Structure formats: C-alpha cells, structure tokens
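Worked Example 4.2. Consider the chain below.
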Amino acid sequence: MSSADINRRQGRAGQVVKVVFIVVAVLAQLTPFYLGVTTALKPATDGSSLWLPPLSGVTFDNFSTAVSVGKLDWALQNTLLVTVASTALVCLVASFAAYPLARRNTTGNRLVILAVLGMLMVPPLSILVPLYSMLSSWGVLNTFGGLILVVTSTHLPLAIFLFTQFTRSLPVSLEEAAAIDGAGLLTTFFRIVLPSLRPVMATVVILTSTSVWNEYALSSYINSKTEMRMLAPAVASFFSAQGNNIGAAAGAALIGLAPILVVYLFLQKYFVKGALAGAEK
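Applying the procedure from the previous section yields the following structure tokens:
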C-alpha cells in the first residue's frame, strides 16, 4: 500500500470521527429540548414514555397553567425590563470605555485593561455579602434599579474587553479622515466608530442578554419579593411547587427559553464574526 493510500484512509477516518463527534454533540444538545417539548405538549392523562411524542393529542394547557399558576407573566415582564435595560447600559458604557483604552496605549490604560481582566475572574457570588449590605444601606433592595445596577456592573468587564479588542482591529485612518473633515471626538465616535462595532455589539448583546435572562443566584437575593422575581427563580419555584405536574413544569421552562432563542437566531450571523474578531488580538 502506497503512502498516498495511507494518507487517503487516514483522511477518511478523520472525517468519520468529526462527523460522529458532531452528531453526538448535536444529539446531546437537542435531546433535553426534545424531551421538554414532548412533555409540555402532552395532556396530564398521557402516561406514555417521555421519549415518545404525544400519542393522545397535543395540548397547550400546560403552558396556560404555567402562566396562570406560576405567575410567569409577571416574571417575564420583570426579566424583560431588567434584560433590556442592563444590556443597553452594558453596550453603551463598555463601548465608551473601550474607545480610549484601544486608541491610547499608555501605561495607565494597560493597567486598567489588566484590572478589567482581573475582574473577569471574580465570581459574582463571592461579593454577595458586602454587595447585599451596600444595596441595603442604599435602600435599593427589591427594586429594579438596584438589580439593573448589579447585573450591569457584573457584565461590564467582559464587554469592555471585547469592545477594546475589536476597536483595535479598526483602521485608524477612518478616524483621521473624519478629523481632517472637522469632526469632533464625539462625532467621530458616534458616526464612524460606533457603526463599525456592530459585529462585536451583537456578540455582547447575545452574551449579556442570555446571561441576564437566565440570572438566578444574585436576583434571588436582591429581588426576593414574589412580584419582583426574575424568570429563572420563578420557574424554579413553580417547578418545586408543581413537581408532580412535569408537563406544566416543562411548559414553564420552554416559556423562559423562547424569547432568548429568538434573539439568538436573529443575531447569530454577527455573533461568530464578533467573537472571532475579539479573539484575534
């Protein structure tokens, strides 16, 4: 057997391994989703296996039960408010902070970037006690303002890092041309730099909104009142109370999943581009 045949066989074996790995990874990701959908669409009287589709008809009663009994409509509104507000603040503040960090390579800016990277390593729950005490002294516990402030702060380090790395990849000549035309710093930022940040902006929006939408630990302590709860604690509480009604519990989980899935499908074409651009430096 020639060396060309050996290389061809090794190439085919490598392709087979890649395909098997991709199939296993896709099945591992989709199987819980499939079980959740089939369980949520089955009536309570359907005692068939979780792996089987609804055999006695499809029902949406489990979703209405989750909304009416679990008060998920309130939790959805609360989560939507906190997610939109904190994501907008993260994008605005991080893009402002990243512009001088990317364009001015001073010792102070390098130290700031190191501090930002260091904050990425701090688990949010490790600062829960002093954070809770501070919010209590400010009187912002069980308020949306306090929770938005906390989740915005915890997501800023990663956003600043991504915006800084992407801004460095932009050509400075565009800003120099704008300056020659008489554009000021703010005009250059809003008309030249900010529109060029759309790929990394989409990445930050997806990462931040997904994380905030699924926020559980911090929001459980900061907004502990029932009417102020986020979606994840509300779903967990409903699941604990309706443990014998797994159809309604699966419906509650799918209700929480649907909005963020739609956002990802709309922004996915920018997500990979922005993530790769941020990883090039």
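The chain has a mean pLDDT of 85. The radius of gyration is 24 Å. Compare this with Example 4.1 before moving on.
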